[in-house]
Design goal:
cytoplasm, 33 strands, Val/Leu/Ile-tRNA-synth_edit, Rossmann fold, single chain, 4-stranded antiparallel sheet, Isoleucyl-tRNA Synthetase, domain 2, aminoacyl-tRNA deacylase activity, alpha/beta, aminoacyl-trna synthetase
Length: 1084
């Protein structure tokens, strides 16, 4: 990103180009500026101008006085030219000297002097650590003070109600305690905190609830891997449940603290007194009450059904936790627990012998090992090949079992052999056929993926070893036919990447249709808005086809299910009948229910050892974090919450379930808006993964990190040696020089700017450096303003107009209010990137590069009245800019805002509680905008032409105005245009035909600038201008296409801007055409 590094000079040095400081304006230039101010009745840039009578008689200078001034100006110009030449020569060797000096004077790490929790001690801006922007210096101490002072707590009125402006609440999507934060968390926190801070500055009662998720399956898996790698193969079973859970709690405490530290480091303005954890006392009570209520209502039930079983993690999974891997044909894949790759994407054919005959029936399978669980063969009842076999049985070649052949209308006669082997206990489709035809359900798998006793001679063997053993044995028996490629999907565990096995197990399930219907209706009626619209369509599609949810997990870490099996003295075995389950908050409660259900019976209670799916407790998050099931003040006043900001990838896992639970348990929607941000990928577009080494810790970006440290972090994790090697190679390529320190503000602003509402984000840390420089731009601009405020400066009570502002002042105040309007509108519409662009444009292109630069001469050389007006406007423009960007950059803005003098009667203690800039119609001045931008455009055009033609002095220019307003403006500010284009000796407004020998610079549809070329070469000018014309014509076509493709619902403002741009381009094209025609004529 190209940045004006010239504005980054240390305190005490004037801002200027890299080649040296610019000379002060000559008397001629100064007189021209003041002359322009004199033409403005409300100007404050000329001596004696106080808004008085513009028609009062002026004192005329004598010829002698004028001659004296001209001689002085010529003498000064010669001296300054000589001085500038010397500085340029000195600057040629400056980079090397500066580099050496920088290496020699490297400062030791900054040590903050402020006691923890106290308001920051502001050191002078001219000390070594404050000369230039330094994130670690700027961002120190503030957060502890904010937290101690309670600035992040919600403010209620004296009667306990929310403030008149309303309330705004976000419950943070809780990070998993599996490890440290990653860049995705930084994106989410940046967006959420921007909304939180912006709404707080709007005067609302605001709450940002922090917290973490226990993440049952993920955390247990991480800790188990840690134990295995660091403790010589130790498993959770070696420790036992109680000791293992203690170990996980220790892990949780360590990483929960790291996560909280990272959130604070990012500047998230959470109220930490309301922090939640999904397994804390209140949230656990919410989980128990919800489970018991839904079980008592019949929405939660126990059933022996097929589940997705992960043999690596030894637990069941919901469909959402299973990834489907597409295969085009035979493919060998890595499977956890196997040294060799296993073949998938293949269909194997073999024959079953018909019992009592010499016939065979050929079947096919993509999983040969499952034939050990076959209990039937299905054919179509009208298939002539097999009609005579219906009712007969086939003999299993490896176990003592006869399999009936039966007719089924859903068998496709023309697919494969037309005969289908049925494995009811290990296939979802076969499960239904098995139920319909009363087949036997035989489980052949142990929980760890080995074969059980039902597998006959293969018992104890690993499932995919058996795949190949079965083929070998079938071949020996002459029953193997062959194999072929088969396009298919392989179900993989999203956590372990193990191949999922459908296994018959008794589990807890939840009926979802009765919960889904009101959740669908709430979104359709607009009670909840889901953005972007594409995600809303996905929500409806999934909810309208929702399946029942398997909510139990075979885990030790998590919410143990509050269900107890009633084992009657004369009853059956444990879990043999779902009617014998009772639920209770405690065992005593469960016992009372059992006694009521089985009066007079002797029994024992055995609690279900399983835990609930993590998403069950997460689904209660928006209201359980506010105190539910208790009727707390927070729950009564701040529920429903306002916005859920999350990634689109968990819309089904989490968002849909929160909506269903919220409506069911509280009678209200849990939030009124869902904003789904894009997913962050690495700079090459790959999904971030620890095994790829492309997961970026936001702390490393904020603080900076060396390549060596990044590599050490990889080695300290749970990655296998091969994964470490692969990840290290990528790191060496992506972070060859490590990662520069960028700070929280630059990171936040970058991520917010990425949030366009479009596709996934390809994140590149190099982009961060540009926004770190932008932070420096703000820092140096504020330093300049502070350095130019008089010691006794007191800002006006309000920042509006006085009626005496000069044109540049009216222009910047107009830009301020328009930026405030655009930023507010964009944030309200959740168009975060638009908000950053509006604020960035105001700071960079308008306040820093134009107004501050152009105000320097007046502040330095103007009268007292002129200086006062310029400084008042500068203060207003700066204060507005700081508060406007605060939601995105909290630390830098607090550091600088605290250094500004306060307006009278403003006792705001922190920018956190300051008011956000609002659109002020009295500052909206499009006429001044057009006028000043015409002045700026014309001066820019002159400078460009002077540079292009190498004219350093004596330039003769013409301003061609193209409408009456432009003519009037150019006449009024002609001297200013000339003064802003050094090297221009003569400048006139020209309304007739342009003379030959002038080069053109199209400014806009309002004006063109022309410069007389000494000894013009028509052929050379034609050669230079033809590409410009071609480029202009191309731009016209592109703009016309853009306008034709504008959506019908686009705003009138956007249409007007597009049309105005086209008008400018047409004018530019015509200017080049006319200019080329003149040079062609000269050539002839």
């Amino acid at each position: 990103m190209a940045l004006n590094h010239a504005s980054h000079n240390p305190t005490g040095e004037k801002t200027g180009p890299a080649t040296g400081q610019p000379p002060p304006p000559s008397a001629e230039s100064k007189n021209a500026i003041l002359e322009a101010a004199n033409s403005d009745i409300q100007g404050q840039s000329a001596p004696g101008k106080d808004g008085g009578d513009a028609n009062a008689p002026k004192k005329e200078k004598t010829e002698k006085e004028l001659a004296k001034e001209r001689a002085k100006a010529e003498k000064e110009a010669k001296f300054l030219a000589k001085q500038q030449k010397q500085k340029q020569q000195q600057a040629a060797s400056a980079p090397k000297q500066q580099k050496e000096k920088k290496q020699q004077t490297k400062l030791p790490p900054y040590v903050e002097k402020t006691p923890k929790g106290d308001k920051k001690i502001l050191e002078p801006l001219d000390d070594e650590y404050h000369k230039a922007y330094n994130p670690s210096v700027v961002e120190s101490a503030w957060y502890d003070w904010w937290e101690k002072e309670g600035f992040h707590k919600p403010e209620f009125k004296s009667d306990g109600n929310v403030k008149d402006a309303g309330y705004f609440v976000i419950s943070i999507p809780p990070p998993n305690v599996t490890g440290a934060l990653h860049i995705g968390h930084a994106l989410a926190t940046s967006l959420q905190d921007t909304m939180i801070r912006w709404n707080r500055m709007q005067g609302k009662t605001v709450l940002f609830v922090p917290g973490c998720d226990h993440a049952g399956l993920s955390t247990q898996s991480v800790v188990e891997n840690m134990l295995y790698r660091r403790r010589n193969g130790t498993t959770r079973h070696d420790l036992g449940r109680e000791k293992f859970v203690e170990t996980v709690w220790e892990w949780k405490e360590e990483y929960h603290a790291k996560i909280n530290k990272g959130m604070k480091r990012l500047g998230g303005s959470m109220d930490w007194t309301r922090e939640a954890f999904t397994m804390d006392e209140n949230l656990s009570a919410a989980v128990r009450q919800t489970f018991i209520q839904l079980h008592d209502e019949g929405l939660i039930y126990r059933a022996n059904r097929l589940v997705n079983w992960c043999t690596a993690l030894n637990t069941s999974l919901s469909n959402l936790e299973v990834d489907q891997k597409e295969l085009e044909g035979s493919t060998k894949l890595d499977v956890p627990g196997y040294d060799k790759k296993i073949e998938f994407g293949t269909i194997w054919n073999f024959k079953y012998p018909i019992d009592g005959t010499k016939e065979f029936i050929e079947v096919a399978t993509t999983r040969p090992e499952t034939m050990l669980g076959d209990t039937g063969v299905a054919v179509h009842p009208t298939d002539e090949r097999y009609k005579h076999l219906i009712g007969k049985k086939v003999k299993h070649p490896f176990v003592d079992r006869l399999l009936p052949i039966f007719g089924a209308d859903d068998v496709e006669k023309d697919f494969g052999t037309g005969a289908v082997k049925i494995t009811p206990a290990h296939d979802f489709n076969d499960f239904k056929r098995g139920k319909a035809n009363n087949l036997e359900f035989i489980n052949i798998l142990n929980d760890d993926g080995t074969m059980n006793e039902n597998a006959g001679p293969f018992a104890g063997h690993k499932r995919f070893d058996v795949r190949y053993e079965i083929i070998d044995e079938l071949t020996k028996l002459g029953l193997y036919v062959g194999k072929d490629n088969n396009k298919m999907q392989i179900p993989l565990c999203s956590k372990s990447k193990d191949v999922i096995e459908p296994v018959l197990k008794p589990q807890w399930w939840m009926y979802m249709k009765p919960l889904a219907e009101p959740a669908i209706e709430a979104v359709r009626k607009g009670e909840i808005k889901i953005m972007p619209a594409l995600v809303e369509r996905d929500y409806f599609r999934w909810m309208e086809n929702i399946d029942d949810w398997c909510i139990s997990r075979q885990l030790w870490w998590g919410h143990q299910i509050p269900a107890y099996y009633v084992k009657l003295k004369e009853g059956g075995a444990y879990d043999s009948d779902p009617q014998y389950w009772v639920c209770g908050e405690t065992e005593e409660d469960a016992r009372k229910k059992a006694e009521a259900k089985f009066p007079g019976k002797e029994f024992e209670l055995e609690r279900d050892p399983d835990c609930l799916d993590t998403w069950f407790s997460s689904g209660l998050w928006p209201f359980s974090t506010l105190g539910w099931p208790n009727k707390t003040h927070d729950f009564e006043k701040l529920y429903p919450t306002s916005v859920l900001e999350t990634g689109w990838d968990i819309i089904f896992f989490w968002v849909a379930r929160m909506i269903m639970f919220g409506i069911k348990m509280t009678g209200k929607v849990p939030f009124t808006e869902v904003y789904n941000h894009a997913l962050i990928r690495d700079s090459e577009g790959r999904k971030m993964s620890k095994s790829l080494g492309n997961v970026i810790d936001p702390i490393d970006i904020m603080d900076g990190v060396s390549l060596e440290t990044l590599t050490e972090k990889l080695k300290a994790g749970n990655l296998a040696p091969k994964e470490i090697e692969r990840a290290t190679k990528w790191q060496q390529k992506a972070f060859a020089g490590g990662i520069d320190e960028c700070g929280a503000d630059a990171l936040r602003f970058t991520l917010i700017n990425y949030a366009t509402g479009g596709g996934d984000i390809n994140f590149d840390v190099k982009v961060m450096r540009g926004y770190r420089n932008f932070c420096n731009k703000i820092y140096q601009a504020t330093k300049y303003v502070l350095g130019n405020l008089p010691a006794d400066f007191k800002p006006k009570e309000k920042g509006g107009k006085t009626g005496k502002e000069s044109l540049p002042e009216r222009w910047i105040l107009h830009k301020l209010t328009i930026a405030a309007r655009d930023a507010n509108n964009a944030l309200q519409a959740r168009e975060f990137s638009k908000a950053t662009q509006a604020i960035y444009g105001y700071w960079y292109s308008e306040l820093c590069d134009v107004y501050i630069e152009n105000s320097k001469a007046i502040i330095r050389d103007g009268t007292t009245e002129e200086k006062q007006s310029a400084i008042d406007t500068l203060y207003t423009a700066l204060e507005g800019g700081l508060t406007m960007i605060h939601p995105m950059m909290p630390f830098l803005t607090e550091e600088l805002w605290q250094r500004l003098p306060r307006r009278p009667n403003d006792n705001t203690p922190s920018i956190v509680r300051a008011a956000y800039p609002q659109y002020d119609q009295t500052l909206d001045d499009p006429k001044s905008e057009r006028d000043y931008e015409l002045v700026l455009g014309c001066s820019k055009g002159l400078r460009s032409l002077l540079s292009e033609h190498g004219i350093k002095e004596g330039g003769i220019g013409l301003v061609q105005t193209l409408n009456p307003e432009a003519t009037k403006t150019a006449e009024e500010y002609l001297a200013s245009i000339k003064a802003l284009a050094k090297g221009t000796a003569e400048l006139k407004i020209h309304s007739t035909e342009i003379p030959d020998g002038y080069s053109v610079y199209p400014v806009s549809s309002a004006a063109n600038i022309f410069l007389q070329i000494p000894n013009p070469d028509p052929a050379a000018e034609i050669k230079k201008q033809k590409p410009k014309l071609e480029e202009s014509a191309k731009a016209v076509q592109e703009q016309q296409k853009l306008i034709s493709e504008l959506a019908s619902g686009v705003s009138e403002e956007i249409k007007a801007k597009a049309d105005a741009r086209l008008k400018d381009l047409f004018s530019e094209q015509k200017a080049y055409e006319d200019s080329l025609a003149r040079f062609e004529k000269m050539k002839l």
